[in-house]
Every structure is written in C-alpha cells, then in structure tokens.
Write a structure and sequence with these properties.
Helix 4 packs antiparallel against helix 5, helix 5 runs parallel beside helix 7 and helix 6 runs antiparallel to helix 7. This protein has one domain. The two termini are about 40 Å apart. A hairpin with a 2-residue loop joins strand 2 and strand 3. It is mainly α. A 3-stranded antiparallel sheet has the order 1-2-3. Helix content is about 65%, strand content about 5%.
Length: about 400
Amino acid sequence: MSTQRMQQISSLATADAQVAAATRPRRFKYVNLPFLAVVFALAAYGLIVVYSATAFNDNYSFMRQAAVVGMGALAMLLLLRFDYHQLSGYLTLFIIVNVVLILMPHLPIIGLESKGATSWVSIAGVSFQPGEFAKLTVILLDASVMARYGGKLDSVKEYLKSLMIMAIPFVCIMTQPDLGTGLVYLFIAGVALIVGGAKPRFIIVTVVAIVVAVVSLFMLDPVLDEALGKDVLLKEYQRARLLVFLDNSYDPTGDGYNLQQAQIAIGSGGLFGKGYMNAGQSTLGYLPEAPTDFIFCVLAEELGFVGAMLLLLLYAALLFICFSIAYSANDLFGTVIVMCIAGMWLFQILENIGMTCGLMPITGIPLPFVSYGSSFMLVNFILLGFVGSVWAHNGH
C-alpha cells in the first residue's frame, strides 16, 4: 500500500472520529466524575451511620433521611446544568431573600419554637428551618458583594460598607436566636472577604474587634440579666455551654454530662470499634442527640479510629476537589462561591467533631452529609450542585 493511500485512510479515520465525537450523546458534559464519586461515597457512608443511630429511636425516621438524600442528589444533578453566572449582580435581591427567609419563623401561625429558639416554620404540615436554606443566599450575597471589587478591596469606606451588608444575615439570625447558624454566617463572610481580596489588616482589625466584643458580652451579660430580671443577650444554655468548654467539670448533670458521654463513646471505640449497630452509649440513651449533633460519637464507637479516619479522608477528598474547582474558575464570583461553600463545610466539620472531643464549644452545628436532618441535608446537596455548576461552566 502506497504512502499516499495510507495518508488518505488516516485522514478519513480522523474525520470519522471527529464526526462520531460531535454526534455522540454528551451525557457527561456537565459531570466531574471524581467529584460525584466522592459525593455519593460520602452520602452512602452517612446513611450507613444514620441507620445505626436511628435504629433504636422512634423519634427519627431513616426512610425519611434516605428520601431526602435522594431528593438532594436529584437537585444536585439538575443544578449541574444551571449556569451560575446568571445570578451575578442580584445583590439587592439576595439581601431581601435573606431577610425574609431568616425572619420567617417569627411570623405567627407558621413559626415554631424549639429548645428556646424560634428557628422553625411549619407550612402545610411540612416543618423546615429557613435559616438552613439561607446559607445558600448568604453565600450568593457575600460572593456578589466581593465580585464588585474584582479581587481588590483596599478602601476603608467600601470595606465597612461590605461588612455591614454581610452582617445583615447574622443580625437577623440572632433574633431567633440561633448562635450556631450565626457563627456559620460569620465564617462564610470571613472566607468571602479573604478570597475576595480585602486587605489583611482590615480583616485582622475586624477579628480583634469581634473577639473583644464577645468577651465583653460574656462578662456583661450576667450583670444585665440580673438588672433586668431576664436573659438579655446570652441564653442560660448558651452560657453553660461556654463554661463547659472552659471547664468540663462544670454542670456535671447537663452540658458537662453530655460532653463526658460523648468522650466516653469516642474513646470506647478503640481502633476498630465495637461493631456496626453496637453503640452502647447511644442505644442505652446515655449519648444525647445521637443522630444529629453527636452522630460522630456513634460512628467512632461502632467503627473506631479506622471508621472515623475513613470519614475524614472522604471530607478531605471533597474539600480538595472544591479547592481545585475554585482555583480553576475564570471569574471571582464563581471562585468565592465555591470557597465559601468549602470553607463552611470545613468549619462545620471542625466544630462538630471538635465539640464532641472537648476541643470546641458545644453548639447545634451538625456534621455535613452525616447528621440526621432534612433541611440541612437538602441544602448541602444544593450547594454541591452549585460547586458542580462552577466546574461545568468554566470551559471544562
């Protein structure tokens, strides 16, 4: 066969391959396969732990949790095709939506009070936490604020203006009050400021001012409560949790007891754990809120250090992928969105696991993709959809 003939055949084969590629169904056009693999592995692992944590507790429904995971996965896949760029520039709208969502529990009839906080609503028999869904709009709000400066925020006036806008959700959520969610909002704002290009000295001064304000608040609160005869700033349970963090022997029958039982559960798991569905601390009722706030203790007791490390490895893989997606985004809006989402998850992971070990104050912050909770789980999957959207609409 002549060289010319071979070149013709090669050219025809190349053309056929190009035609086949152009006409091939592009079902994976919007899919980052490693991202999806980690997500579904993490969701499956979470369901395994939730099944054990809820098996002996009639107050929780595993089937409901599984259904929410399915709904969340569907929402995530649908959002992969949505172009997040369309949301850039709606700053005023995000402020309004945030205020409406967070203040919704204060509305008569639909607002519900639970454990001293008015953070739930019930509509047509369906109960949910608007503050959880507001996490998405808080992220979009903060990303929109920082995108206006193109990665350089060096004006004191503009910095204070941005700070005031970002503080609106926190002020609203503290009217419930929900300190745990409020801390998440603050952390999201901090990530947005850092990634968005605010001058480091502005951020340092802000952090110092917040620390001073918190310490002053903690010291003045008992005086104000005594003078006015009621809880003014901190609720009694919030003050107790802070004191337990400083001294784990404080309140041995309340929050101090909860922390001790959590540490017993984690320590008794050893290297390989007691075995699946053999968490005695939660089964016998010693461990409080086992399927929600303290679910990491259930995992550690049943699956031991190895099981806990597997969860941390899955978290690390998810965060690494998120950071790489944020780095590859070709616009600041997308970068800030993904970094705020990843930063929020990192904060929740460190806080939830840290509080069970006595390294962080006890709060109501759940463990992402593991803790029982419909609103929390659904919002996390929606946020995953936005992460995937940033990846899909940046030239991949």
